Amino acid sequence: MNPHPERTESQAHEDGTTVRREVLTDAHVDRAEAGTTEFTEDFQDFISRYAWGEVWTRPGLDRRMRSACVLTALIAGSHWDEFEMHVKAALRNGLTVEEIKEVVLQSAIYLSVPSANNAFKHAQKALDELTE
Q: Which residues form a coiled coil (predicted)?
């Protein structure tokens, strides 16, 4: 069931861009938009409209929980650049450093110890960048 049946695609894109900016920062979204080409414009629209405007705006999970889920999924897929970006986003969404550590520890059980080991390395890098 669509939680926003009355919204148009344009409204979903607008809402998604707002959430995307709040979670990932204006600077990140500005860079992504500035790098958009004719080849990538459909993907950028998809991300803003669907991922951010439809899924991230659903009422079923708060942003803290969504961030925890995203971190786990990115560890599972070995998407380390995105993981580092979402460690910072998780902090903006209200997770503490201690909670991020627990998410990574939990991933060691269900994904693998090597995956968690790598995740700790990348999380530490992201956290260090915030204090530079």
A: none
Asked if residue 125 and residue 82 are part of one domain, the reply reads yes
Using a cut of 0.85, tell me whether the model's pTM lies above it. yes
pLDDT for res 89? 98
Residues 13 and 71 in one domain: no
DSSP annotation of 61 reads S
What's the rounded Cα separation, in Å, for the pair 115 and 80? Answer: 10
* Distance (Å, whole) CA 108 – CA 131: 26
Q: For residue 46, which of 24, 72, 75, 16 has the smallest C-alpha distance?
A: 16
pLDDT score of 6 more than 90: no
Shared-domain flag, residues 51 and 67 = no
Residue numbers of the domain that contains 44: 9-55
CA dist., res. 23 & res. 88, Å (int): 9
Residue 2 resides in a domain: no
Segment 89-99 shows an average pLDDT of 98
Which residue type sits at 123? A
